[in-house]
């Protein structure tokens, strides 16, 4: 059970110190948006390269961009531990997943809420994680979409005994994390829930405890 806070809702002008407030986290979720794949712009490679110098936590890149085939490998080369590209945007997802692994990163494919899990069925041996969006991508602070819960169960079934993480991203909080864990998710992105909390580290611990308890039921 891993908690990976999204820095989208952090103070982006003080990124190094903001990441210091989540030292209990398992990874740092970094949302890259290009204004084309999603209607929002965030940060890109130069900021990620700088951030890597200021944290020992692994970076969990979430690339909401067009042409991930071109850009995603550069994040692996920079030193990100995990690189997630959107299946809707990739031209050659199998080749891209293999390239990410060749560069030493964990490879991961993300699915928008309306994208069926079957879209990754034939390439499960190429990925270490599948990210299921539980909001429409583009903005933090949105309401969790319950309609994704059956997809989490379907994906777990498809994965079977393979060692693949299922990440949920969007609207994950103390209200929603247990349902995700019960359905089969094991990596949880939480942006506003963590950064709007008075004590982000305490919220990370609380979320992890809720997920562990829900899963052991
Ligand atoms: O990918 C994302 C948005 O596209 C973010 O990771 C996500 O929205 C996290 O923020 P919150 O927990 O506030 O929903
Ligand atoms: Co994200």
Fold-level CATH name: TIM Barrel
What separation lies between the terminal Cα atoms? 14 Å
Strand order of the largest sheet: 1-8-7-6-5-4-3-2
- Tell me the helix content: 25-40%
Q: How does the helix and strand content classify structurally?
A: alpha/beta
Strand content: 15-25%
The CATH class turns out to be Alpha Beta
Q: Work out the oligomeric state of the chains in this entry.
A: single chain
The domain tally reads 1
CATH-scheme architecture: Alpha-Beta Barrel
Overall geometric form: globular
Query: Can you list the ligands bound to this structure?
Result: ribulose-5-phosphate, cobalt (II) ion
Name of the CATH superfamily: Aldolase class I
Detail the poorly predicted runs: none
Number of helices: 8
Rg from Cα: 16 Å
User: Secondary-structure element sequence?
Assistant: EHEHEHEHEEHEHEHH
- Arithmetic mean of pLDDT: 98
| Total beta-strand segments | 8
Keywords: Carbohydrate metabolism, Cobalt, Isomerase, Manganese, Metal-binding, Zinc
GO molecular function: D-ribulose-phosphate 3-epimerase activity; metal ion binding
Organism: Tessaracoccus oleiagri
Active site: 31, 169
């Amino acid at each position: 059970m891993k908690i990976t806070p999204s820095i989208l809702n952090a103070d982006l002008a003080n990124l190094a110190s903001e990441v210091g407030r989540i030292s209990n986290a398992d990874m740092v979720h970094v949302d890259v948006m290009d204004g084309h794949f999603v209607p929002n712009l965030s940060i890109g490679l130069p900021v990620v390269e700088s951030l890597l110098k200021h944290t020992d936590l692994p970076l969990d890149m979430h690339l909401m961009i067009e042409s991930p085939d071109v850009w995603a490998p550069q994040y692996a080369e920079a030193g990100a531990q995990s690189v997630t590209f959107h299946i809707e945007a990739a031209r050659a997802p199998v080749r891209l997943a293999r390239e990410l692994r060749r560069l030493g990163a964990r490879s991961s494919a993300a699915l928008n809420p309306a994208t069926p899990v079957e879209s990754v069925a034939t390439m499960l041996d190429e990925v270490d994680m599948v990210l299921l969006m539980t909001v429409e991508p583009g903005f933090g602070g949105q309401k969790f979409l319950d309609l994704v819960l059956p997809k989490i169960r379907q994906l777990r079934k498809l994965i079977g005994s393979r060692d693949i993480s299922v990440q949920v991203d969007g609207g994950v909080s103390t209200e929603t994390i247990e349902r995700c864990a019960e359905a089969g998710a094991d990596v949880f992105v939480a942006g506003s829930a963590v950064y709007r909390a008075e004590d982000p580290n305490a919220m990370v611990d609380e979320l992890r405890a809720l997920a562990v308890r829900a899963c052991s039921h």
